[in-house]
Amino acid sequence: MGSLFSQIATVTVMNVRSLPRRLWMSLAMVLASAVVVAILLAFLAMAKGFETTMNSAGSDGVAMLMREGAAAELNSVVTRDQVSLVEDLPGIASDAKGPIVSPELYVIVDGTKKSTGTDANIPLRGLDAAGMALRGNVQLTRGRSFRPGTNELIVGEGVLREFDGFDVGSEVRFGKNTWKVVGAFSTGGNVFESELWADAKVIQSHYNRGSSFQTIRVRLQQPGNVEPLQKAIAADPRLNLDVQTEKAYFAGQGKQLQYMAIFGRVISFIMALGALAGALNTMYTSVADRAKEIATLRALGFSNLSAFCGTIAEALVLAITGGLLGSIAAYLFFDGLNASTLGGSFTQVVFRFEMSPELFVQGAVLALVIGFASGFFPAWRAARLPVIVAFRNGA
Amino acid sequence: MSDFYLIYKNMTRKPLRLFLTCFAIFIAFLIYGAVTTLKGALDAGVDLAADNRLMVVNRINFTVPLPISYFRKVAAMDGVKNVTHANWFGGYYQDPKKQLVVMAVDPESYLRVYPEVVVKPEQKKSWLRDRQGILVGEKLAKIYGWKVGDKIPVSSNIFSQKNGGHTWDFVIDGIFTGNTEQYDTGYMVFHYKYFQETQSFGGDNIGWLVLTTEDPSLNEKVAKKIDTTFANSAFETDTSTEKAFSKAFIEQIGNIGLIIFGVVFMAFFTILVVVGNTMALAVRERTGEIAVLKTLGFSSARIFKMVLLESLLIALVGGLAGLGAAKLLIEGAKTAMAQFLSNLVMGGDIVVQAVGYMLLLGLVTGLLPAVNALRLNIVTAFNRAGV
């Protein structure tokens, strides 16, 4: 008998090569781990995609000012006078045209979803050139930008993906007003891509908003530092505003879907337990089936350890095959899948499922755990079973 | 020796295997029960919608308000039985993060349009009289421990008071229950007049109108009438049945729900396949014994019945335990999640469906080995087992 390693190798190869003989059992084991891995990856990919959409939206260099107590942009109101007052506050960065301040409006309009043909909420944001400049990563992908003072709007790439009727050049009607889509923009996949943008003044007049706005965004002198602004606002009773960085705002808004991700993890964990029970059963049956073979090997002089390792290796091979299949299935079905849901501001957030390499690693780890756990106990039993008993039972 | 004794012995010969099999089935049905209940709760708004109830919202979107004058105009239309209006208040109690469903409504017509809302007569009387009174749903009252007569401050993250604050003080005049268990009583309503007088902006706007028609067959006609009446005005309307409206709202949560349920059900069936496979194998292992039983004079039909009963029994034991655990889980989650999903109820249809799947699992996994056992030729069986 060779070294321990060559023994283990021999038993492993033998076990793996005899797998087709136990086709159904092997398939069951593969299936079990494939499903668990696929479920986990699906949920993680969803959470990841949503997170990317929300996180990359929030800039640390931009502060958001909303009416006190307003939890979302939709609920906030800011007057024209307040906007003028804010422009003079400290801590705001300036360019050639003065302090970089963007008063914005946010109304909800209906769009028709491609997937279901039903209506869903889309935000229509009113802003000006300063507002577009404030979002550093805006790129026009098609057409041109809207002209101030006209019923023109530009549409986010996310809206284009998920909703019907917003193609560049087409006309859309909200209530009495007809808008012309003159361009499409991308903001690098973040939440702003789920929006329509138009001139703030036009929206004010169409939606009876007078001269009010909903939020004010400002570029900060020092990224992340809202303290000077906060102090100045607290000192002025005319400014009943809350200040936070845009990043903090979106992190708060993203909380909702995080529950979904936790839910997903819990479900895949529980499902994994169920599948593990199935896998364990399969391995026990498989080992019991070959009790005599294993006993023969041991009678021939193979060590207990090599019998043990061989069985574990077999379980690992099956689980990893399953994990691989599950990952591939998850990748094919879910990667890049467009989805949308109601976000914190009561509007649709369009995002993509995102299957990143570290998710695959998590899936692989899970497959290994399943393989190891389901192989360990049966292998332990096979290696410990007295040879004589094995022969007697097998007869 | 009764058949049941044999079945019992067969089942328990490998306790570990029995445990693992039952456990896997248990998990599968635990998740099935929990997830279908969750789905049922999400769809409850659609299922409970009254047939003759219509929603009138602004065509632009239901968050855009309508003028109050529409209330009288719609009330005067033919075919309209009752009509009421409501405003979303954006309320919260103490913590802005914990939103409450609070609406400003026209009290009398509201109770007429929503017969599901059950209030004790004397409470109803005092609420209708009391302009600062609020009517609280039973579920909501339970969460915060509110009683009739309590004074509660409710804040709004949309509106502000004329005096600059965001908080309104209300007196709880009544606590309402639903006429069915599924009816969601996790909200509260107060007088629109009080809201209108105290808010600093918003003027004479209402959020939406709800009306009942004299008969469901009139729905379409009435809806069309309303929408054409207000077409080409500054506030165009979109009228749909309550059912369609709720459904559209649920769909806003989006294909995410669909994807999750899809994934879970796929997993559910895969677990059943895996488990079924082991159960079938467990019977096949016993070919030799079945041959012995046949030799002893057991009829084929009897053996067939025994094998089938065994797999049915295993499926039911695991499955019913799982369903029971799901029920417990939901009862626990009910209080914890009352704010988001208040009508978590495991309905009879879910139980029936689940039991159906258990029987199916038992039959499918038992049938093939049972048929094999039925057809088994004793001599071949002994030959096979003897090798």
Would you mind describing this structure in some detail?
The complex is a heterodimer of chains A (395) and B (387). With 395 residues, chain A is of the alpha+beta class. Chain A has helices at residues 4-17, 23-55, 80-87, 129-134, 157-162, 200-206, 227-235, 246-289, 291-299, 304-334, 357-384, 387-394, and strands at 62-67, 94-95, 98-99, 101-113, 119-127, 139-143, 152-156, 163-164, 171-174, 177-186, 196-199, 215-219, 241-245, 338-342, 348-352. In chain A, the strands form three sheets. In chain A, strands 1, 4, 5, 6, 7, 8, 9, 10, 11, 12 and 13 form an eleven-stranded mixed sheet that branches. The longest helix of chain A is centred in the C-terminal third of the chain and has 44 residues, at 246-289. Chain A is elongated and about 95 Å long. Chain A starts with a helix and ends with a helix. The model of chain A has no long low-confidence stretch (mean pLDDT 85). Chain B is of the alpha+beta class. Chain B has 14 helices and 13 strands. Chain B has helices at 3-12, 15-47, 69-75, 107-113, 121-129, 138-144, 192-198, 219-229, 242-253, 255-284, 287-295, 300-336, 348-375, 378-386, and strands spanning 53-58, 66-67, 80-88, 91-92, 101-105, 117-118, 133-137, 151-156, 167-178, 187-191, 205-206, 208-213, 237-241. In chain B, the strands form two sheets. In chain B, strands 1, 3, 4, 5, 6, 7, 8, 9, 10, 12 and 13 form an eleven-stranded mixed sheet that branches. A two-stranded antiparallel sheet of chain B has the order 2-11. Chain B starts with a helix and ends with a helix. The model of chain B has no long low-confidence stretch (mean pLDDT 85). At the A-B interface, α2, β4, β5, α8 and β14 of A face α2, α9 and α10 of B.
